[in-house]
Structures are given as structure tokens and as C-alpha cells.
Amino acid sequence: MTDPSFFDPKPRSLEEIAAATGATLLNSQAAQKVIATAGPVEAAPKDSISFIDNPKYLPHLEQTGATAVFCHEKYADRVPKRVEILVHSQPYKAYATALSLLFPTAARPQPVTGETGVSSHAFVAESAKLESNVIVEAGAVIGEGAAIGRGSHVLAGAVIGANVQIGRNTTVGINASVLHAFVGDHVILHPGVRIGQDGFGFAMGPGGHRKVAQIGRVIIQDHVEIGANSTVDRGSNRDTVIGEGTKIDNLVQIGHNVVIGRHCIIVGLAGVAGSATLGDYVVVAGQTGIVGHIKVGDGAQIGGGSGVNMNLEPGAKVIGTPAMPVRDWVKMNMMLKSMVAKSKSGGDKTE
Amino acid sequence: MTDPSFFDPKPRSLEEIAAATGATLLNSQAAQKVIATAGPVEAAPKDSISFIDNPKYLPHLEQTGATAVFCHEKYADRVPKRVEILVHSQPYKAYATALSLLFPTAARPQPVTGETGVSSHAFVAESAKLESNVIVEAGAVIGEGAAIGRGSHVLAGAVIGANVQIGRNTTVGINASVLHAFVGDHVILHPGVRIGQDGFGFAMGPGGHRKVAQIGRVIIQDHVEIGANSTVDRGSNRDTVIGEGTKIDNLVQIGHNVVIGRHCIIVGLAGVAGSATLGDYVVVAGQTGIVGHIKVGDGAQIGGGSGVNMNLEPGAKVIGTPAMPVRDWVKMNMMLKSMVAKSKSGGDKTE
Amino acid sequence: MTDPSFFDPKPRSLEEIAAATGATLLNSQAAQKVIATAGPVEAAPKDSISFIDNPKYLPHLEQTGATAVFCHEKYADRVPKRVEILVHSQPYKAYATALSLLFPTAARPQPVTGETGVSSHAFVAESAKLESNVIVEAGAVIGEGAAIGRGSHVLAGAVIGANVQIGRNTTVGINASVLHAFVGDHVILHPGVRIGQDGFGFAMGPGGHRKVAQIGRVIIQDHVEIGANSTVDRGSNRDTVIGEGTKIDNLVQIGHNVVIGRHCIIVGLAGVAGSATLGDYVVVAGQTGIVGHIKVGDGAQIGGGSGVNMNLEPGAKVIGTPAMPVRDWVKMNMMLKSMVAKSKSGGDKTE
């Protein structure tokens, strides 16, 4: 259920939605129909917009409450007449765009206090430089020499370290911290994110471990999003880099010197150990660990709960610990299952 | 060691303890004996109360320092005479009740600053509504339109988002944040908990991933407890729900749209991916991952470090990745161990 | 890349560096050469110091930019003439010392606001006791009766609970919290660390789970370092203890009553369940889980992603779930791989 007290919908006409998404509205007479909300086709409420991304959802159209759907041209003739059609080659992307149009306050974490500009309950060092339209909420702290770009928000209780540079239209979430970092534009750091603290580096050995000072930085490129309570350590002697458009989920650990390419997806509770390098469009599923110093090629996909201890070729699809091709893993599990089943049937005799 | 500077014990007579727990004190002449502390039977100090939950601990009674023990009727005649007996059918539950009576400040996270009411160092939006006996500590922030019920505490540095509703006698821990959520009564959110931030939703694909606005909420029912630095994302198009009495440990990730039933236990570093549904009384051990969109039946128990990728029947007991019945897992590991052992004895020849 | 805006280098002569590290500068005529920075031998910039810890890096010396290297005596004659030699028996430890000398602000997390003493934007309870040279930054909160030792820093937004004692020269990081704890000297708690909240203890059962009040404390000994957003629960009836010099990475969970020895290493996303005991110099790699109530002997090494469900002998080297000797694990994985390969070659016939 969407609660209007949280997300204040902005109803839009189908014409406006078509224009914003680049979709073609097949029935021009429906241009002024108003869309107030959105939802997946099987649960779309009245006056909503939805999408068909996969033909298996087409049957749900019979009973959908949606006024209109984004849909690929090839399925258009399977949409019931009462549902308006917005033709688009990437229906789910178009839907995502429409959703942000209808619920602009859900598309970016919002300030919570209603204060504008710099709160009188915030601390901003005199030497910090804030461009226009920056919001700094109650309890936030901006360190010496920090710079915050136009339209960026530092939410309640967030802390920006000395000399950190934050780009434009970026959001630093509640109680997050950013140290020793350059952060790009349109970045979202969710609550409790920790950027730029010391990497885990020690000269180990008998007599105890001596701390190795970490003198690198963190570079977070444009359009990156990092989930709640995730941690990104600064480099020891090179920079830790999160590439443009990469999306990181909650409770993910990124070690020092890690370089992550563009448009990667890293799911919750995954860890990337020090000095590992990921290419572009890599997908790392939840709770997976990538050991230090290895390279993961562009477009590699790593299944959940895996342990990757070797370089991966571009496009590799692996899973398991140690990680292996998905087909081998499936085969291996079938064999093990079959062995256990055999042992059960004749088990007591042979054991 | 219990340090009185932290937990200020409130000594109680055995009579008071029996009354509060519903236990029967066998020796009525001991009613005025005073209990000052508590501990497990093998380590119970002088003037303490303890419990026997399992007959294997009975031998420890010979040397226990405890003045009295909660104990099932059937073991009563095995308790040494010098130890008083409080008969109860659920000795450990009775012990837990007694412990909270003796150490009331340990039974609920306490405010730290000694301030009463709303701290002059807190920020409370004018439109927020606070019932009576609410504490808002230094550094806390209450957003616009938020409502906090009677007897609830918002501890130092915690942030309550706009329009969030918090029930009565609930504690929002230090530096925690609660957004887009309705939280029930007698809930405990430990330090650094993150509730209600965006779920991890993107329309993925070449050209980059487009953010899917998350327009659901989080519903946290009564008597829920969530551990330090755990994260609960709000729903994308339905609510994320944590059912009554469910207890979640530290560093757990709960994805968007997840529905968790009543009285579940989810242990540290576990993750429940988006749109999964757990029944009532489910137990998820530490570091286990549950993939998205699956259903886990009532009373299912999932061992530590598992990866659950299929629906589980009510009462299922599984472990491993992929998760399998516990017996199969034990059998499989025995077989693998045996194979390795054989290969060692004759190994160099056949490899 | 090191950015001088973040780490303000303090150039030092080779003579100073030799003196501080106990190294011997072979060429006394080079004593006044100035070192401005540092880096690994393959990436060492001009005017830097580096180290040779492993002979496989010797070839990099041909093209290194380093002015000098720490190096074991036995490799000294393989260092090119243009590179000065600092002989040391533990080159990496000497390098770590030099690095902290050159970049003192990177060796300990720094305050961010530029305030000295107690910020007027902090809350310090009247009954708290602060020794000299304590820094309490904006947004920090010091509870009633807390004590903070000389030279310790409580950074922005950090919260110290009532009656907590913090030693000397300790740093409590940004937005961290410390409750019911005694913390030693020279401790570093990184941002978002959670110390001393309730352990996860419930009297479980039908009708719901009853909270077991946690009346122990947390003891953190000298020279401990705990990574960002890690959590350490206080004991239920004994203390949770982190031994001297132990280093814990980010997002690690330490359960109640856990006792960790001296100079252990616990890597990111690992979890140690309640009442487990680790000896000294134990290494726990990332994402590993240690179940409750077991004992891990001194010097045991546990590989990444493991599940340890039994006591480990001192010096044990294990990996896997359930954890087994590393050799057995390697053997097991080779056997499984070979089975899968065989099944592929003749597979379709026999399945």
C-alpha cells in the first residue's frame, strides 16, 4: 500500500507520461486520462500505470486495475481494449521513469526536518564551501575545507569530513559519514553508509600487528547508489573507486584499493576484499565474497553466497565456494543429492 | 561480572519473585529471603536466583552459589536442600522474567544523558506530535508530522522521518533511523538500525540501471526487537512487514516487500531478499541467505550459513547451500569426509 | 594517489626514519636525503620510501621511483645502487612505522570539525569526567558518569553511554556508540561501531520469546581496532572481551559473552556467536561464522566463508562449511571437480 502521507503522488496525464518516457500512446484519444499511481500488473490499483516486461504476465491484464500499461509493440494486440497501451522497447525502464514522475519524493531520499538551507542545529566549519540550494539538516556536521555542490543534501546527523568534495544533486543520508573522498553528482548514500575510513591494513606478526597508515582516497563517480550501513574503505596507496552508475545494496563491505567499474550491481551482505578489481556491468549477488587482488571481467555474474577466489573472465557466470561455472554447480549438486539418496535406500547395509 | 554502575540491581524477596513469575515457592518459610542478582547455575553468585532448564545442569547445583532456582516439578527432588525451589513449568522463561525484575534498567535500552522530556539539544519539528512521557535525547531529530506514543524513547542521535508513527513504550536506539514506517508498541530498535530507506530496485540493463522509486512502507508490529546496525528496507509496491514478537539480531538485512510472520528469530548477518515471505515461528540462523520471492512455512528452522533458494514447508529443518534437510546434509558431509579419507590412504596411486 | 589535502605529509630524512624504525642505513652519506611519501615498490613515486618483504618483488626495484627501501640483510646486494637500503629484519613492520611518521594524520582517525576541546555543539553530562586534551566534537554526546581519558577523541555524532570508561589516546569514531563498556588505551573504534548493546538472548518458545536481560559488560583492551559498522554485544552474565591488540574489520558481529584473545585478526562480515572463546593470534577470514560456545585455540587460522561448528586445536588451519583441514578441503574440491568433469564427458549416457 502506498501511503500518501509518505509519498505525495503527483497525478499526470497519459500524454505527459508518454512525453517523459518516450513511449507512444496508441490511443490518442486517451491523452488526457489521468494516472495517479502505479503498480505491477497483478496488483495495479485503479487509475494506475503498469507494465508488461515478460509475456507470462499478460494473463494478469484481464483483471488488472491499471488504466494503462507500458508494453513492447509485439504484445500490444494481447492487451485488453479497456487498458491503454504505451508502446516502448524497454517497458520496465519506462515504468521506472513514470514512477519517479508520479512519486518524485520517493525517487530521492528526502530531507526529514522541513528546514531549508543550513539548519541552525547543524555544524558547518567556517572554511567549508557550500554552493547554492544545499540543504544541511539538524545534527549534520560539515568539516573544515569541505565543499558541497549545488542542490546536494546532507541529511540529519550525517558527517562530511575535512576537505571532502561532494558533487551536485547528491544526497548524503541520515547518520552517514564521508571521509577522504571525492563524491560525484547524483549520488545517493543511504543512512549509515561509511565512506573513507581506514582500510584494514596491518603489518602482522608475532609481537602484534602494526597499523599501516592508509593514505589513499575514495572516488565515487556519478549516479552511484550505496545502501544503508554499507562500508567503503579508502585506499592504502591507491584510490578505492566506485564506478559511474554502480548500485550497491545494504551492509556491503568494499575493501581498500578496490576498483569497481561502471554499472555494477552488488547485493546485500556481499564483500569485496582489498585490491580486487571489478569490470563494468558485473553482478555480485548477496552474501558473496570476492577475495583480495583478483580481477573480475566485464559482465561477469556471480551467484549468491559464493566465494570467488580466482580471476573471472568477462561474461563468466559462476556460483559456489569455491566459485565454479553455474552448470557445474548444478551438476555437482545433482550428483551429491543422488549419492545421498542412494545411500539412504541401501545405506544401512553398506555403511 | 555485573557492574552495579551499569545495571543498578533491585533486590527482591522470593515471595515477590514468585508472584511476578507465577512460580510456586516450595518452602514458604523462605518467602522473605532476598535475591540480589542472577546467573546460570554453574556460575550463579551468592544471593542469586538461577534455573534448571535441562537435567544435565542438575549436577552443578551441588556447588552453585544460588539461593534459589526455577525448576520443573519433576526435578524438584534433585535440588539440594540448601537451595530454595521455585516450581515453574517453563523455568527459563520464569528466570527471564525474574532477571528483568532484578535489573529493570537492563531489560530495555536506557537513555544515556539523564535528560527528561525533550532535550534542548534535540530537534523536534513543530508539526510533530509527542504523547506524554516521551524522551527525546540530545542530538535526536524528529521530522515533520511524526508521532511518538506515550512512554517511547528516542535516544541520542536517532532520527525519526517525516510522518513516521511510533507506538508506545518503544525505544529507538542511539543513532538509529526510522523512515516511512509505522512502528508498534514495546518495540526495541538497537543502535544504528536503519528502517524504511529505499529498497534495492532498478530497471537494469545496458545503458545503466534506472532507479525504481520505492513507494511502500515498513510496518513493525508490537514487541519486535531489531539488533544493532540491521537494515529493513521499505516496500517497493507493498509493505515490508515485521510480525509481532519477531526478534532480529545485529547486521541483518531485510529486503523490500519482505513479510515476516510472528515470533520469528533471525540471527546475525542473515539476509532475507526482496519479496520473500516467512511464516510464524521461523528460525533463521546466522549468515543464512533467503532468496527473493520464496515462501518459508511456519516453524521452519534454517541452519547457519545456509542458502535457501526454494519454498520451505512448514516445520522444515534445513541447512546448507542449496538448503537441504538436515539429515541429508549430515549424511552428505559424512560421505564427502569418507571419500577424502579414502583418497588419502590410497591417494597417490589413483590420482 | 595520496592527496595532500587529506594527509598532509611530513617529509623526513633517511636518518630520522632509520632512527624511528631501528633500521640501519647502509650508506651513511645518504642520511640527509629527504623522503616525502611512500608506496609499494612497483608503484613507489619519486622521493618515496618502500620495502621488500618478499624476494618476488625484487625485480620491481629496477624501475622503482623509491629513494630508499627497507629490506632484509640477505637481499641487500640485489638492490640497485641508486636505491638506498635500510636494513631491517621485519621490513614491512619498519615500513608501517615510517608511513605513520610521514603521514601522522593518516595513522589515527582525525577530528573533522577543527574544534578543540569540547564543542559547544556537543552534549556532555555534568557528571561526566574528562581528562586533559580530550576532544569532543559537534554532535557528540557523553552520558552521565562517563569518564574519558587524556588525549582521547570522541568524534562527531559519537555517543558514550552512562558510566562508560574510555582510556587514553583512544578514538571513538563518527556516529559510533559505546555502552556498558570499559575501553582501554590507544583503541580505535571506526565510524558506526556499536559496542555494548543488548546481546541476543531470549527464552524462546510457544507464546513468544521472552527477553533475557543482559547484565554483563564489554571489555575492550588496549590497542584494539574495530572496523566501521561492526557490532559487539555486551555479555549476558559474563563480560564480552576483546583482547589486547586484536584488529576487527568492518561489519563484523561479536555476540554476547564472546572472549577474544590478544592480537587476533577478524575480517569483514565475519560473525562470532555467543559465548565462543578465541585464543591469541587467531585469524578469522571474511564472512566466516563461528558458532556459539566453542573454543578456538591459539594461532588457529580459519579461511574465508567458513562455518566453524566445533572446537579448534591451537594452530589449526581450516576452511569450509563445516570447517575442515585446508588440505582436506582442497582434496574434496578436486574430487568434486573431477566427478563433474567425468559426468560431463560421459554424462548424457549414464544419467
Overall geometry of chain A: flat
Distance between the termini of chain A: 56 Å
* Major β-sheet annotation of chain A: 11 strands, mixed
Q: How much beta of chain A, percentage-wise?
A: 25-35%
Uncertain parts of chain A: 347-351
Radius of gyration of chain A: 25 Å
- Whole-number mean pLDDT of chain A: 95
Q: Please, how many helices of chain A?
A: 5
How are the strands of the largest sheet of chain A arranged?
10-13-16-19-24-27-30-33-36-38-39
User: Quick one: how many beta strands of chain A?
Assistant: 39
- Look at the helices and sheets of chain A and give the structural class: alpha/beta
Helix content bin of chain A: 10-25%
Report what the structure shows:
The structure is a homotrimer of 351-residue chains. Chain A has 351 residues and is α/β, with parallel strands linked by helices. The first copy, chain A, is 14% helix and 26% strand. Chain A has five helices and 39 strands. In chain A, the strands form six sheets. Chain A has an eleven-stranded mixed sheet. The longest helix of chain A has 20 residues. Chains A and B meet through helix 1, strand 4, helix 3 and helix 4 of A and strand 14, strand 21, strand 22 and helix 4 of B.
Set down the secondary structure blueprint.
The structure is a homotrimer of 351-residue chains.
Chain A: H1 4-7, E1 12-13, H2 14-21, E2 24-25, E3 34-35, E4 37-38, E5 48-52, E6 66-71, E7 84-87, H3 91-102, E8 123-124, E9 129-130, E10 135-136, E11 141-142, E12 147-148, E13 153-154, E14 159-160, E15 165-166, E16 171-172, E17 177-178, E18 181-183, E19 188-189, E20 194-195, E21 202-203, E22 210-211, E23 218-220, E24 225-226, E25 231-232, E26 240-242, E27 247-248, E28 253-254, E29 259-260, E30 265-266, E31 271-272, E32 277-278, E33 283-284, E34 289-290, E35 295-296, E36 301-302, E37 307-308, E38 317-319, E39 324-325, H4 326-345, H5 347-350
Parallel strand pairs in A: 4-5, 5-6, 6-7, 8-11, 9-12, 10-13, 11-14, 12-15, 13-16, 14-17, 15-18, 16-19, 17-20, 18-23, 19-24, 20-25, 23-26, 24-27, 25-28, 26-29, 27-30, 28-31, 29-32, 30-33, 31-34, 32-35, 33-36, 34-37, 36-38
Antiparallel strand pairs in A: 1-3, 2-7, 21-22, 38-39
